[in-house]
């Protein structure tokens, strides 16, 4: 136990909790939770907003990583919620199995990523939470509750924003290990992207478009992650963009040393699907992030809307990533019941300026039913979550049932729970 709880990864938020618990077993979690009136789980601290803040105490899941148990008959792996994807991948490698997808970085905890609906990219790849087929959580009374896919509330319990309890273990779907080749194509004429959105984003298993909008007619790069066992071979050009001859970083000008291997060299899934390597600082490190998930049918119009705002966006932007996420059934998923595109913004770390710009950006994306990423910076109160999430009322009922005393509530979730 310690008093200085510290900050989130980005350093833009100092947690207000007075106590940080660091349990090493589920029994310890149960004892801690049963003895407090306000607590939340803290994963690897990679969220940019106050979603993990605002309770009197915090419970770090960092030591709740194991055991990692593979069930070959069910094609699943069960893990402790605190394990980071990069560490899990090393365990899976030994077993010759893989997860279907990963986020841009392997540094995040499985429990934290799932709780916020974290996703990677890929036309047919769903959010990371969609791999969950079972979970176990400690409720406010200290009881251990298990959810499986046959529970009627299962789809509500997976992406839970930390408000249902402390998730201690998760069962994830796995598949045989596979290889991926990563190729970066540069200078994609924007009109080619807009005219061929399905072609570009469907060019391979996972595709991300990066642009700084400094030239509104050209997207800086397209990161194509190809599965040789599924995808057609790539050519030297992609809708007018040209394959890079050297390795790149998604943020122009930064060294590629911290990025996963490129140049079309085949390698294991976990060392290609994320953009960043586990043993390096991901992205820039000095930044803020926002992301809005828009139904795929609005992709082109939403990108045009962002482009319209490029004069205001460019001074605060490090890079804009455009990616795709397939629909799932999880109630609080930003791709709930719709294939979606993610419009992700890595901003400079100037919170007042970013917060001043966001209402304009959000107003421009609102007609497209944009859902803000739960773990990134967005304008509180600016989104009609009941409209965006048709199962939100069911989630409120589930929360009242599992956490009647509001032990896991914080101001972030309280505003969502209020009608
Ligand atoms: C450099 C960088 C790159 C990123 N890239 C992506 C990306 O590619 N795609 C994407 O979608 N997001 C991305 N994110 C956002 C990130 O994935 C989410 O913020 C995610 O929640 C981080 O997980 P965490 O373990 O750090 O969670 P934390 O920030 O520690 O916690 C987030 C929330 O989850 C809850 N929580 C954590 N663990 C548990 C648990 N065991 N039980 C119950 N609740 C829990 C917390 O209470 C809190 O509400 C990125 C973030 C950074 C910093």
Please provide a written account of the structure.
Residues 13-177 form the FAD-binding PCMH-type domain. The chain has 419 residues and is an alpha+beta fold. It folds into two domains: 69-177, Uridine Diphospho-n-acetylenolpyruvylglucosamine Reductase, domain 3 (2-Layer Sandwich); 179-372, 2-Layer Sandwich (Alpha-Beta Plaits), CATH 3.30.70.2520. It is built from twelve helices and 20 strands. Strands 11, 12, 13, 14, 15, 16, 17, 18, 19 and 20 form a ten-stranded antiparallel beta sheet that branches. Strands 4-5-9-7-8 form a five-stranded antiparallel beta sheet. It has a three-stranded parallel beta sheet with strand order 1-3-2, with helices on one face. The longest helix has 15 residues, at 351-365. The chain is globular and about 60 Å long. Bound molecules: flavin-adenine dinucleotide (FAD). Flavin-adenine dinucleotide (FAD) is lined by residues 9, 40-47, 51-52, 61, 81, 103-105, 108-109, 111-113, 115-116, 118-120, 161-162, 166-167, 282-283, 289, 373, 375. Flavin-adenine dinucleotide binds at residues 9, 40-47, 51-52, 61, 81, 103-105, 108-109, 111-113, 115-116, 118-120, 161-162, 166-167, 282-283, 289, 373, 375.
């Amino acid at each position: 136990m310690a008093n200085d709880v510290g900050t989130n990864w980005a350093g833009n938020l100092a947690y207000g909790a007075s106590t940080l618990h660091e349990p090493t077993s589920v029994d310890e979690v149960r004892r801690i939770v049963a003895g407090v009136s306000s607590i939340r789980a803290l994963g690897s601290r990679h969220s940019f907003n106050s979603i993990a803040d605002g309770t009197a105490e915090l419970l770090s899941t960092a030591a709740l990583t194991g055991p990692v148990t593979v069930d070959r008959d069910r094609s699943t792996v069960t893990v402790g919620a605190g394990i980071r994807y990069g560490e899990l991948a090393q365990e899976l490698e030994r077993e010759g199995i893989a997860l279907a997808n990963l986020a841009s970085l392997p540094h995040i905890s499985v429990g934290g990523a799932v709780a916020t609906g974290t996703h990677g990219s890929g036309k047919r790849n769903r959010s990371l939470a969609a791999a969950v087929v079972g979970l176990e959580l400690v409720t406010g009374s200290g009881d251990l509750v298990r959810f499986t896919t046959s529970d009627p509330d299962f789809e509500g319990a997976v992406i839970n924003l930390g408000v249902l309890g402390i998730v201690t273990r998760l069962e994830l779907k796995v598949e045989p290990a596979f290889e991926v080749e990563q190729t970066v194509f540069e200078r994609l004429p924007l009109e080619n992207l807009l005219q061929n959105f399905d072609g570009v984003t469907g060019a391979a298993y996972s595709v991300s478009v990066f642009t700084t909008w400094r030239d509104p007619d050209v997207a800086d790069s397209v990161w194509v992650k190809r599965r040789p066992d599924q995808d057609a071979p790539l050519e030297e050009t992609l809708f007018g963009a040209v394959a890079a001859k050297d390795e790149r970083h998604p943020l122009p000008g930064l060294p590629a040393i911290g990025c996963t291997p490129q140049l079309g060299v085949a390698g294991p899934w976990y060392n290609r699907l994320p953009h960043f390597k586990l043993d390096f600082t991901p992205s820039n490190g000095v930044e803020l992030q926002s992301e809005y998930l828009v139904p795929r049918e609005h992709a082109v119009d939403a990108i045009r809307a962002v482009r319209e705002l490029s004069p205001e966006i460019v001074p605060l932007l490090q890079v804009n990533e455009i990616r795709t996420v397939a629909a799932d059934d999880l109630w609080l998923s930003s791709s709930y019941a719709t294939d979606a595109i993610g419009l992700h913004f890595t901003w400079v770390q100037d919170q007042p300026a970013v917060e001043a710009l966001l209402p304009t950006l959000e107003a421009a994306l609102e007609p497209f039913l944009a859902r803000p990423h739960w773990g990134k910076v967005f304008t509180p109160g600016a989104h009609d979550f009941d409209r965006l999430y048709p199962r939100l009322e069911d989630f409120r009922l589930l929360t009242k049932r599992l956490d009647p005393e509001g032990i896991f509530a914080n101001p972030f979730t309280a505003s969502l729970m209020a009608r």
